[in-house]
Fold:
Amino acid sequence: MDQPIVCNLVKDYELEFNILKAYVTPREEGLLVLELSGEDKNYEQGIQYLREAGVKVQPLSQDIIRNEERCTHCGVCVPICPTGALVVEPLTRKVNFYDNKCIACELCVKACPVRAMEVHF
Ligand code: SF4
Ligand code: SF4
Structure:
């Protein structure tokens, strides 16, 4: 982004923020998970500002869980995950899921051939 979007949310819309996760993917897309608080009206206007600035905004009201019984550790999900939450363990060749890095983008949910990645609301 060529704008200090988080700074503007504070300055122009009086929103408080807490950055939960932030990543820049290899394709140089920025991913930011923010907790925002403030007046409802300011929140709506702040989100509108983000959208108009070209930011794709989605609520994080869901969680991604891996069904360990279903996962075959095939590795299909590893290159798809933009945040490195799914990683092959070099020694065991098992796929580890680090849910603290997951931003619930759901890419792995669609990609997993045995539907081991599940969305929970
Ligand atoms: S694609 Fe599905 S089965 Fe394969 S490693 Fe990922 S979660 Fe496990
Ligand atoms: S939903 Fe899947 S692909 Fe997206 S960040 Fe979480 S683990 Fe990675």
Notes: The two ends are 30 Å apart (CA to CA). The helical segments are 5-13, 40-52, 107-111. Residues 63-120 form a domain with the Alpha-Beta Plaits fold (CATH 3.30.70.20). Residues 64, 80-81, 83, 85-86, 102-108, 117 surround iron/sulfur cluster (ligand 2) (CB under 6 Å).
